[in-house]
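Submission checklist for the structure archive. All mandatory fields must be present; incomplete records are returned to the submitter.

[x] Identifier: DUF4440 domain-containing protein
[x] Organism: Rhodococcus wratislaviensis
[x] Residue count: 160
[x] Sequence attached
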Amino acid sequence: MNVGATRNAIGVVVAVLVFGGLAGCGGDTSETASVSISATASVSATEEQDAVLAQEARWLTAITAGDRDTIESILSPDFKHITSEGTLLGRDEEIASIVPVTFTMNATEQSVDIVGDTAVIHGVNTLTESGNVLARERFTDVFVKQNGTWMALSAQETAI
């Protein structure tokens, strides 16, 4: 893979990931979170935050593994992704760009805000390969709860 293609793949991957708890990816599980949920909510704020972060972790793991089927199950039909290079990708473009990668992603400094059926995660994602940092990006991911499942609606990264 040439440098331009690698940089594009990194941008795509970072934008998508960007999730916490990183099962199998050495992620930092010390997230901070704030939530606004109505008093009639049947699920606690912590449970909702955990559910969003679990979906984020599942997404990040699927990205690095090149698991398009799992990514398709996570991305909302209206998903949009703005890469750190400023490229806007729709859902189909995002899925088509997914290939297995050799680097790992470590999402840290994560915070989750939930208002109704919308959740926003902010954090920092560090991409490493063989102990070398390839990129660090601050990210924002937006999820919406559809039919009881948190679905990714939007992702955006900014290079640090």
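[x] Structure attached
Curator remark: Confidence is low (pLDDT under 50) at residues 1-41. The longest strand covers residues 132-146.
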